[in-house]
Structure formats: C-alpha cells, structure tokens
Design brief:
By secondary structure, this protein is an alpha/beta fold. The chain folds into 2 domains: 168 residues, Peroxisomal Thiolase, Chain A, domain 1 (3-Layer(aba) Sandwich), CATH 3.40.47; 141 residues, Thiolase/Chalcone synthase (Peroxisomal Thiolase, Chain A, domain 1, 3-Layer(aba) Sandwich). It has 9 helices and 13 strands. The strands form 4 sheets. The protein has a 5-stranded mixed β-sheet, sandwiched between helices. The protein starts with a strand and ends with a strand. Bound molecules: acetyl coenzyme *A. Acetyl coenzyme *A binds next to helix 1, helix 5, helix 6 and strand 12.
Length: 316
C-alpha cells in the first residue's frame, strides 16, 4: 500500500507585518533581519484567527485541490504546539469544522518538525491498512507565544497553516517512499517555552539559544539528508526538489554548500512567511502546487524544539 499526496492547501492570517512595521521599541531593522535570517515579513493572527481556524481553511483548500469530500477522510493528524486549547486537540476542532464524524483526529507536538512527524504517522497508518484517506496538517500561531520584547527571537516567527491529503493507493510507485523521525531530549533547554500547564499554568514564551539551534539545524539537516540518500540508494543529483524547514535562509544556504545540491532545486520562501514552525514545509510546498504532482523525488527535512528532526522522501 502506498500513501499518495493528492491535494495541497494553505491558509494565512489577514494581517501581514513587514520588517519595517515592527514595533520601534524592538530597536531592530529591516537590514539586520534580512541579512541574518532572510525574513522580510510575517503574517500575524488577529482576534478570531486561531490555529484551528487556519488549519480548517488550509484543509478545505487541500480537499478542494484533491477533489474529494471531507467524508472520505478517516484520519486527521495535526502538527502544532500552539493549539487553541489545552484540550481537546486542535485536530478534533478541525474535524468538527469539516463536519467529519468518522475516524480519528489527534495532534502531534514536535514543534518545527510537526509536519514531518505527522506525515510519518499518517503514512504508517495508511501502510498498516488502518487508514484510507488522511489529512496531514501543520498549523501554528507562534505570534501568541513569542516574547515581543525579545528582538533576537520575536522577529523570526510568523503564523500560518498548510495541509496535505494522503490517499491509500495500491499498485503504484508514487507516494511516500521513506520517512525517518528522530529526537534527542538532551537539547531541550536550547529551545523551550518559559511555562506550561503542569509547571506554570500558562503557555509561557519562547526562550531560545539561537546559535546552538543554528549549528544543530545545519548538522541534522545534512545528517538526515545523507541518511535518506544512503537508505534509498540515491545520490544528491537524484533529488529533484529539497524542501527544508524554513528557520533561517543562512541555515539553508549552509546546507546547500555542504550537500552540494543545486541551489535551484531548493525551496526557500522564508522571506514571505518567516518561521511558521510546523506550517513551514507545507507553506513551502504550496509554492510549487501546480507542478507538485510530477516533481519526481521530493525530500522534506525538518528540525525543531526537543530537539526533534526528520526526513521524508516523496516520489511523484
Ligand atoms: N535586530 C537587531 N539586532 C539584533 C537582533 C535584531 N532582531 N537580534 C539580535 N541582535 C543583535 C544582538 O543583540 C547582538 O548584538 P551584540 O553583538 O551587540 O551583542 C548581535 O545582533 C548578534 O547577535 P547574535 O545572536 O550573535 O546573532 P546571530 O548571527 O547568531 O543571529 C539568530 C541570531 C538570527 C537568532 C540566529 O542565531 C539564528 O537564526 N539561529 C537559529 C534560530 C532559529 O532558527 N530558531 C527558530 C526555531 S528552531 C527551528 O525552527 C529549527
């Protein structure tokens, strides 16, 4: 059984804030942010725009793209660490919003690796024969948990959602060929929130050791890519499209230099959306939405808090 992507969709908040529109008190500049990160703007959720509402809109677009009805979905896996409520899961809110009353819906908390983790889980359910059609979503509202007085982290993040429909198909060579997810909790203090339900009874704010995150991301992107190539008897030239998590364009350019991949094969759209955590990979895939279904070998790479990291190979 193969898990074949058949639809993509995204959703963004209405409000877009360019670097030079950030609060003056931050004492930052468009030049600093562009040079150090590649980010030019980010979308920020207003009242009424939530992780679930963005996820629902992205899911509806993905279903429309796939030309299937919500009733065909029997699994929703949603990567997020900025859910609407402590419980129920944001996935169940999306399920309700879509009018789906069958199957299962749950969240995955892997921070910026959320979409890759969610794909790995949905693909496994399909390959086990437990699921026929899955919605895989990454949706975040990081603007709610950034410390708006910490210029070294708040300028990096944005809000948004992306979704993919995966369908079980037999007798095809298309679909998810490989996925590998990893974590090492020993690094948890490098990227963490200052609170949580069981500790402070509030969500807290992002606290980050930027330089450690940067080094680890370059190392793990490269390690994951090499493992994926080795495990699939591929060389870097066999990759037709590389979609890394969009954390910092300098991280991605280091990966390009180390791996030797042709730059034109690597998707970078961090300038438009900043780092949207679990939403970043589907927001990047949407850039090639029309060509996606005949792209060849597509490699997704993620890295996030935990630390968590992972890779996926899709052949279309
Ligand atoms: N505007 C202006 N100046 C700033 C800003 C800002 N927004 N932020 C920091 N600075 C200043 C610092 O105060 C420091 O000033 P000083 O030299 O006078 O002390 C100077 O810029 C350099 O600071 P560094 O922290 O050394 O800057 P660096 O080049 O490491 O860039 C950054 C910081 C962008 C955070 C980088 O480390 C990074 O991108 N790390 C990866 C973090 C990341 O991607 N996190 C996302 C979450 S995890 C994930 O998605 C994988």
């Amino acid at each position: 059984m193969n898990s074949v992507p058949i639809g993509l969709g995204i959703s963004l908040p209405q409000k877009c804030i360019k670097n030079n529109e950030l609060p003056k008190e931050l004492n930052t500049s468009d030049e600093w942010i562009v040079q150090r990160t590649g980010i030019s703007q980010r979308y920020i959720a207003s009242e009424g725009e939530t992780t679930a509402s963005l996820a629902t809109q992205a899911a509806l677009k993905a279903l429309e793209h796939a030309k299937i009805s919500p009733q065909e979905i029997d699994l929703i896996v949603l990567g997020t660490v900025t859910g609407d409520y402590t419980f129920p899961s944001t996935a169940t809110i999306v399920q309700k919003n879509l009018g789906i009353t069958q199957g299962a819906a749950f969240d995955i908390a892997a921070a910026c690796s959320g979409f890759v983790y969610a794909l790995d889980v949905a693909d496994s359910y399909i390959k086990l024969g437990k699921t026929k059609c899955a919605l895989v979503i990454g949706s975040e509202t990081f603007s709610k948990i950034v410390n708006w007085s910490d210029r070294s982290s708040c300028v990096l993040f944005g809000d948004g959602a992306g979704a993919m429909v995966l369908q079980a198909q037999e007798n095809t060579d298309r679909g998810i060929k490989y996925s590998n997810i990893c974590s090492d909790g020993g690094y948890l203090n490098h990227l963490i929130t200052t609170g949580g339900v069981s500790t402070t009874q509030n969500a807290g704010f992002i606290k980050m050791n930027g330089q450690e995150v940067f080094k680890f991301a370059v190392e793990k992107f490269n390690e994951s890519l090499n493992k994926l190539l080795k495990d699939n008897n591929m060389t870097i030239d066999d990759v037709d499209l590389l979609v890394p998590h969009q954390a910092n364009s300098r991280i991605i350019h280091k990966l390009i230099a180390i791996s030797g991949i042709e730059e034109k094969k690597v998707l970078i759209n961090i300038d438009k959306y900043a780092n949207t955590s679990a939403a970043s990979i589907p927001l990047a895939l949407n850039e090639v939405k029309d060509a996606f279904f005949s792209m060849g070998n597509i490699v997704l790479l993620s890295m996030g808090a935990g630390f968590t990291w992972g890779s996926v190979l899709i052949r279309l």
